[in-house]
Amino acid sequence: MNTDKIRQEIRGLSDGKLFFNNAGSSLMPNIVVDSMIDYLRQEEQLGGYEVANRNAELLDNCYAETARLINCKPSNIAFMTSATEAFAKALSSIIFEEGDTIITTVDDYISNQITFISLQKRLNINLLRIKKLENNELDLEELENLIKEHHPKLVAVTHIPTNSGLIQDIEAVGKICRQYDVLYLADCCQSVGQMVVDVDKIGCDFLTATGRKFMRGPRGSGFLYVSDRVLEQDYAPILLDMRGAHWSEYDNYELFKTAKRFEHWEVSYAAVLGMMEAVKYANTIGLNTIENYNRKLAETLRTNLKNSSFKVLDIGKNLSSIVTFCGPDNDLENIQKVLRENNVFFSVSYKNSALIDFTDKKVDGAVRLSPHYFNTLEEVEKVSEVLRNSLL
Ligand SMILES: Cc1ncc(COP(=O)(O)O)c(C=O)c1O
């Protein structure tokens, strides 16, 4: 991997900023922005329908490129405007009835938790969260027991939670779900683009992802993976449109075969194209290479922070490129001020974003630095020094 070349291909880095907010919204490669602008310029001249017709082959290739990223077929991919849209469409295809059980984790994403609570309020769904072991890993034995006892309609696990460096063992969860034939959704919003994500190994029925984070695509892009198993059983979003089905009789329709049935007809093709360029960029470098490099950056950062007596809040056997911490006295405010003054891009989350996790950790929130493969070890040292000096 040629980091110098990669950095030259990011206009956003030209002012010397220290960009560590890839878990929020990353910096796009130039090719992503240029291809989107070029596409919009065509729409400006010809109107969107004509441009889509002329670029049909290119747009079709977006499915193949994205499929390559997660090791599936193009027919398993549906483009979305966000991970949340993907999640909502997937859930809407499941017919929940009063008393059905959903199993999730205490670390799952805030919006996913709110959706589950909404289902609990409206449909009297039984919401269960898998307990964690002492070492912060999921208690898989408990998961198996919960499945045997409650026969859940769905198991949903966030691969990398937004507010902790944890990587959940979604492959082990997948094995159990397959064994008991339970629908399984993996929220891979923070892991796709950051590391190798392989649906064949995960064994999930749905996988949700967004474009703007570690994938380095534009805002308003994302995708949903839908397994063949689910497609063959005619799962489809409850509010289906003509993208999903052929209106065959006055009061009937025939579902289309592929995961495209989870899309709506109208999409921003400029955003889809931008995301495809971002995916292609990552595929060309190789997700294995990206994952190994990212691990080194994050490990160095965590070690530096610990050595400077910051409270690093990431606990787990496998940790990701999301580094969360607060000051020795739980400070968040002074850290933010110092980072801003030094042109460091970061994010901060407060208690309600990870209500259970932050309550257990007895903190009011966390500062989050999320390095990615265009960052260098020198930059990690620079940001570590800025933080070290903030304690003097
Ligand atoms: C783990 C996780 N899931 C889902 C989402 C939602 O993604 P989006 O905002 O693209 O809908 C996020 C966003 O931060 C996330 O971190």
From TrEMBL:
Top-tier EC class: transferase
Key words of the record: Lyase, Pyridoxal phosphate, Transferase
Pfam families found in the cross-reference section: Aminotran_5
Entry cofactors: pyridoxal 5'-phosphate
EC number: 2.8.1.7
Family, per entry: Belongs to the class-V pyridoxal-phosphate-dependent aminotransferase family.
Listed name of the protein: Probable cysteine desulfurase
Species whose genome carries this gene: Chryseobacterium indoltheticum
Organism lineage: Bacteria, Pseudomonadati, Bacteroidota, Flavobacteriia, Flavobacteriales
